[in-house]
Amino acid sequence: QLQLVESGGGLVEPGRSLKLSCVASGFTLADHTVGWARQAPGKEREGVACVSRRDSSTYYADSMKGRFTISRDNAKNTVYLQINNLKPEDTGLYYCVADAVRLCVVSQLSRLSEYDYRGHGTQVTVSS
User: Fold this and answer.
1) Measured in whole angstroms, how far is the alpha carbon of residue 75 from the centre of its chain?
2) Residue 111: which residues within 8 A CB-CB, separation 6 or more?
3) Among 18, 77, 123, 124, which residue has the fewest nearby CB atoms (within 10 Å)?
4) Which pLDDT value is given to residue 45?
């Protein structure tokens, strides 16, 4: 079965860190551009970061630079999103998407249905 599954979300206090995982089944994630998008309550979905299929270059939304890190582990067929110094405004549902053809364009990550594969999301809640 071809699918992406996100995990690693949870309820955390401000200032803590989380590492989200996006695991692929049935296809090789290294051959795909992979990205993360998030949707906060009452807000539009936004792109967070992506890693290129060509050379694994990474790209971030301007507001995400510094606290977010996207990375690949090809041996585990997994892409990670490390989030440090979590803030309440980071609360939301985090989605993983992958595509065999699309370039890594952060502004397009919110359009989940346009990607070959997309997960169901993992919830991140930042609260004291």
Assistant:
1) 18
2) none
3) 123
4) 97
Q: CB-side exposure of 55: number of CA atoms within 13 Å? A: 2
What percentage of the chain exceeds 70 in pLDDT? 100
| Spatial distance between the Cα atoms of 3 and 13, rounded to a whole number of angstroms | 31
Structure-token match 């060509």, residue found: 54
Q: How many CB atoms lie within 10 A of CB 37?
A: 26
The identity of residue 124, as a single letter, is V
**Where does the pLDDT of residue 54 fall: very low under 50, low under 70, confident under 90, or very high at 90 and above?**
confident
Q: 109 by DSSP, 3-state: which?
A: coil
Count the neighbouring beta carbons within 10 Å of the beta carbon of residue 90.
21
- As given in the structure block, the two tokens for residue 17 are 């860190």
